Amino acid sequence: MIDNMLKLARINIQKLKPYQSARRIGGEHGDIWLNANESPISVLFKLKKKSFNRYPECQPLNLISAYANYSNLCNDQILVTRGADEGIELLIKAFCEPGKDAIIYCPPTYDMYRINAKIYGVEVKEVPTIKNSWQLDILNIKLNLDKVKLIYICNPNNPTGNVVFKKDLLFLLKITLGTALIIIDEAYIEFFPQESMSFYLKDYPNLIILRTLSKAFALAGIRCGFTLARKDVIDILNKVISPYPIPVPVSDIAIQALEKDAIKTMKSRVSDLNANRTWLVNKLKKISCVKKIFDSSANYILVQFFMFEKVFCTLWEQGIIVRNQSDKINLNQCLRISIGTRMECERLIEEIQFFSKKFHF
């Protein structure tokens, strides 16, 4: 009977391998979580709203105004979503015809672009980035534009940490004008704000930007994100978003996080994490089991290790949880390490140093 019920699911869903989030594969194990690119420091807010018997606004005006002020955009250029993840899904839902249209995504990168397309029965064209530099393979993207409606680009890219050349993004925007949308996922942009593409929204109607409060704002637990685009695109997305996507407590806390003093605190926290990243990289360079460290402009680093599986398991056994990326294209022997507090980074270095000495590297 169970098998028969499972067969009722759509064929593509039966075959789908779901995204393995940090919590799905890491559970509650560990003392130091360096596997989900979260902020290691929590931010405390008190709810100002006290009654929850009424449905919330579909798009809370005060929250939109607060983010418009932060991003120097107009209210009608912003859609509030359940994390940036909902924005990824809504764009496919609104713009792609199943069985007809396609998306391009450029691995190694965030897998939810690909998985959402597969869920909706939309073709996925994989155009891997150039190995080790992780820059876009512009020529192959240009050769694969047939049927493509959406091109997803994470910048800074997850899990490699690099910033994509702005000239390449502008080139893509020009050659796809009128035929496809370029979606720039700026989940980590606060760690390198000068690379944001938001300034170009006024020039390119096919530019979409995804943002979140999960990373630099230290609010992964409330699931609040934003889609930034021209008004006509926002109007289309408003047609397919669910009726009440943003709970009152989420809106309440998000508005507080976008107040002037809270933004100042966020920027200070980002500065500290960037300093911790530099410290961690410099320490790792001196450890012999470390094969290569890739440059990063985000709150994580990608590191290639000798005996990477043993490094991963040893850290896990010591309660330090990092993310194994070795199954992704061109990331053999690589672990992604989120930047923690200085104390957490010191503990990580101690364990890797001990491992390196134990196995005589």
Tell me what you see in this structure:
By secondary structure, the chain is an alpha/beta fold. The protein has 2 domains: 2-41 and 268-358, Alpha-Beta Complex (Aspartate Aminotransferase, domain 1); 61-261, Type I PLP-dependent aspartate aminotransferase-like (Major domain) (Aspartate Aminotransferase, domain 2, 3-Layer(aba) Sandwich). 37% of the residues lie in helices and 15% in strands. The protein is built from 13 helices and 13 strands. The strands form 3 sheets. The chain has a 7-stranded mixed β-sheet, sandwiched between helices. The protein has a 4-stranded antiparallel β-sheet with strand order 9-10-13-12. A two-stranded parallel ribbon has the order 1-11. Helix 4 runs parallel beside helix 10 (248-257) and helix 5 (83-95) packs across helix 6 (112-119).
Quick structural overview:
This protein has 2 domains: 2-41 and 268-358, Aspartate Aminotransferase, domain 1 (Alpha-Beta Complex); 61-261, Type I PLP-dependent aspartate aminotransferase-like (Major domain) (Aspartate Aminotransferase, domain 2).
Outline the secondary-structure elements.
Blueprint lengths: L1 H5 L4 H5 L6 H5 L5 E2 L27 H11 L6 E4 L1 H13 L6 E4 L6 H8 L3 E4 L11 H6 L4 E7 L11 H10 L5 E5 L21 E6 L12 E4 L2 H10 L7 H10 L2 H25 L5 E4 L6 E6 L2 H10 L2 E2 L1 E2 L9 E5 L3 H17 L3
Parallel strand pairs: 1-11, 3-4, 3-5, 5-6, 6-7
Antiparallel strand pairs: 2-8, 7-8, 9-10, 10-13, 12-13
Helix pairs in contact: 4-10, 5-6, 5-9, 11-13
